[in-house]
Design goal:
six-stranded parallel sheet, 24 helices, binds thiamine diphosphate, binds magnesium ion
């Protein structure tokens, strides 16, 4: 007899699943072991919150479906925050969640897993019966991949242990070709561009997913346009001299000013939400907005749009290139040598600031700039959430968009370390930087053991202000919040050493020489830097966000 759990593993192996994150209990032991028997790598997390976030980050970095395996009941409920993040960020994740049998009405482990999944925006799926198990598994995997959502496949124990039908092969899914936008919408967009003298191309996640970067760079050359990205695809136009970097709170003053000067904004797979547009203020009210998206309901959702182009970002860029030639469109005169210089000198690392480091604490900007210089350029940067998070985003350069992992869809603190683990498993060739606040580091601390056990090439940087800094700054106008959101200083270097990792405490830039030595030795195994940062520097993007709310 071949049990259903083995058929599930067989189908997933057939679909090419080669890595699974999780935490094994009795309910998911067999299916996970079945995957491992078929050559899949199993990465054990120390908390299911870590496991789901690792699978999410792995999905974002590789473009594959991220798979996570958990025990029924509490094993599953422990994933909920990461699941909500994956749902809001539209990550292709499959959660293999054991479940109690429908008849086990008095089981301690019984909760309504489907409702919990749906409540956070994930798609509930189920092994309905032994006969349907192969189709159920295939459908769950396919939905995660095509809908780009986390799918929770609940696997009741009685169904898992029943005999599966002989044939455990699902039909291969059809190849899906990207959708080309209508000619009419492309002509309309080119008509708008014909009247523009300062066009800006703004690329988001959809541009990355459709592989549009090259086509968009060519289109920007053809139009004489500047380029920018949303925060999640920071690095998409790395090295392009006409790129302004991230649009939104993390944009430098020069970049923000030039974005506001644009008289036509072309958004490709970018939702134009309040973060990207700084509550609408980065888009000139007189600018014409063209939005390209595969999903019609995404167009105009956050910001008024004049021309809607429904279709794949790359296909749309190629169609616009053809139409620009057909209509003999003249490039805009915006790109000049002076503008090029201005953009280069306007990047964050050239923006002067008063260094608030004092020998006992570091200015977070100085820390970030020093790390950018010390760390090899071929890196992946993963950040947690908090006040500090703008500094790595602004100062740590990344070579491409898959090298920046920004799990901020749910704005949950505590996902950063697990995000970095998932990214590191996906890119073992790269040095991964986990940029964390002290609050987020303590929330996700269980995965420090995972970093050590797996020997990941990871630098964990704790921007340690001994506080929930975002909240300190938020409530400062209301008086001192000590006790509620401020804490005694934690020695992260000691915690790291206890977990078997290399560590350093940094109060001055010179203390980062320990990181340089570690890099020079090949950055083998993980290292933690407990960077004591001054609470005196308040990030402008955060003040802006407070004002926006
Ligand atoms: C799970 C979760 N709990 C609480 C919050 C509210 N919150 C936002 S930022 C923040 C402080 C984070 O502190 P830390 O990681 O030290 O970063 P810092 O703001 O100090 O740079 C808190 C508590 C949240 N976003 N997510
Ligand atoms: Mg803090």
């Amino acid at each position: 007899m071949r049990p259903v759990y083995d058929a599930v593993a067989e189908v997933l192996a057939q679909f090419g699943v080669r890595c699974c994150f999780g935490l094994v209990g009795s309910g998911n032991f067999h299916v996970t072991a079945g995957l491992v028997r078929r050559g899949c790598r199993f990465v054990a997390a120390r908390h299911e919150a870590g496991a789901i976030t690792m699978a999410d980050a792995y999905a974002r970095v590789t473009g594959e479906v991220g798979v996570c395996s958990v025990h029924q009941g509490p094993g599953f409920t422990n994933t909920l925050t990461g699941l909500a993040e994956a749902a809001k960020s539209r990550s292709a994740v499959l959660v293999l969640a054991a479940d109690v049998a429908a008849s086990a009405v008095t089981s301690n482990f019984r909760v309504d897993q489907a409702q919990l999944a749906a409540a956070v925006g994930a798609v509930p799926e189920r092994l309905h019966s032994p006969r349907s198990a192969v189709a159920d598994t295939a459908r769950a995997f396919w939905r995660a991949s095509v809908e780009r959502r986390p799918v929770v496949l609940s696997m009741p124990l009685d169904v898992q242990n029943a005999a599966a039908p002989e044939l455990a092969r699902a039909p291969d899914p059809p190849a899906l070709r990207p959708s080309r936008p209508s000619e009419e919408s492309v002509r309309e967009a080119i008509r708008v561009l014909g009247r523009s003298s300062r066009p800006l191309i703004l690329a988001g996640r959809g541009a990355l997913l459709s592989g549009a970067a090259d086509a968009l760079e060519r289109l920007s050359d053809r139009l004489g346009a500047l380029l920018a990205t949303t925060a999640v695809v920071n690095g998409l136009f790395a090295g392009n001299r006409w790129s302004l970097g991230i649009a939104g709170g993390f944009a430098s003053p020069v970049a923000a000013r030039l974005m506001r000067e644009a008289d036509a904004v072309l958004a490709f797979g970018a939702s134009l939400n309040m973060w990207t547009t700084r509550h609408g203020t980065l888009i000139n009210p007189a600018a014409t907005v063209v939005q390209v998206d595969t999903e019609p309901q995404a167009i105009g959702l956050h910001h008024p749009v004049h021309v809607a182009v429904v279709g794949d970002a790359r296909e749309a860029a190629l169609a616009l290139l053809e139409e620009a030639d057909r209509a003999s469109l003249r490039p805009s005169p915006w790109r000049t040598p002076e503008l090029e210089r201005e953009i280069a000198q306007g990047r964050w690392r050239h923006v002067p600031y008063e260094d608030a480091s004092d020998g006992t604490v570091l200015d977070p900007r100085t820390l970030s700039i020093a790390l950018d210089e010390i760390l090899p350029p071929e890196r992946v940067v993963a950040t947690d959430s908090g006040h500090f998070m703008g500094f790595p985003a602004m100062y740590l350069q990344v070579p491409d968009a898959r090298s920046f992992v920004f799990t901020q869809g749910f704005q949950a603190v505590g996902l950063g370390l697990a995000t970095a683990v998932g990214a590191s498993v996906a890119r073992p060739d790269r040095l991964v930087v986990a940029a964390l606040g002290d609050g987020g580091a303590l929330m996700g601390l269980s995965e420090l053991e995972t970093v050590a056990r797996l020997g990941l090439r990871m630098l964990v940087v704790v921007y340690n202000d001994a506080a929930y800094g975002a909240e300190v700054h938020h409530f400062r106008p209301e008086g001192p919040a000590a006790g509620l959101v401020q804490f005694p200083d934690v020695d992260f270097a000691a915690l790291a050493r206890a977990a078997g990792l290399r560590a350093a405490t940094a109060r001055r830039v010179e203390d980062l020489e320990a990181v340089r030595a570690w890099v020079a030795e090949g950055a083998r195994g993980g290292m933690v830097v407990d960077a004591k940062v001054t609470p005196a520097v308040v990030a402008e993007w955060l003040e802006d966000a407070f004002r926006g709310h």
